[in-house]
Design brief:
291 residues; globular; 11 helices; Glutathione S-transferase Yfyf (Class Pi), Chain A, domain 2; 4-stranded parallel β-sheet; alpha/beta; 2 domains; single chain; 8 strands
Amino acid sequence: MNSDKLHYAFYRGCCFQGADIHWLEIVKEVMGLLDVELHVLEQGVCCGSGVIEERSELTSLAINARNMALAEKMGLPLFIPCATCYNVIANCRKVMAEDRESFRLVNEILKEEDLEYEGTGQLTYILWAIAVDVGLEKLAERVVTPLTGLRVAAYYGCHLRNPPDIQDYEPADHLTSLENILRVLGADVVDYGTKKECCGFHLTWPNREQSMKMTSNVLCGIHRQGVDLIVTACPLCYKSLDAGQPRALAATGHDFLVPVVFFSDLVGLACGMSRERAGLDWHVVPVNVRL
């Protein structure tokens, strides 16, 4: 491996496969611009999104310890691009560190594949991989198309905030890494009143009406500030705020639209990728601002 680069085991989760497979190559290319090489964790499995845990905590622990064990076997930190996946896997790491019986039971299960979870590997989320591991200074060096004059709203969602004791990168009650990245890219970051509200993504199936109200609430708080673009650090929030936006706003009596992007696409654009290559034509709400 090139020692001048950062190397990670790339856990794809679900958001970067299937209908959203284009994101896989976009993220790999964006990170490549920052001297990061992602090695796909080919045998990684779905984290369960917290749903499996409702039926069997041991099963949830086992599948996510397995994901971490695969990265440990590669000798690489586990790079996670989905906030929900990061939340679930980091919670698993915490439980396994605190509960020796769960640690033992999980490793009994993993023995069937000749795997062992040691708890020695590192986890990082794509946001912190850029803001902290790569660093803002290097990011600034790679910006070739500053986003000067672009008014943006930074939206984290819930799963990077809660619970607050599962990540080591920044205070969960005062996240600033996304805003810091956006300012390095040259954008003007606009504050708004609904930045800590949930977008409602995980209510889409059990209670679609309430989910749309929550999506609309976040969007209305942002729209009142006259921003050009919403930039989110969570791909599931992106789905709610982009694909779910027209229906949510129509259902709650609003007729505006605000473009939404996943933050790494904007990083790629500022660092020299074309609009097409950065995936800006994949959106439900057209990204028709100057970029």
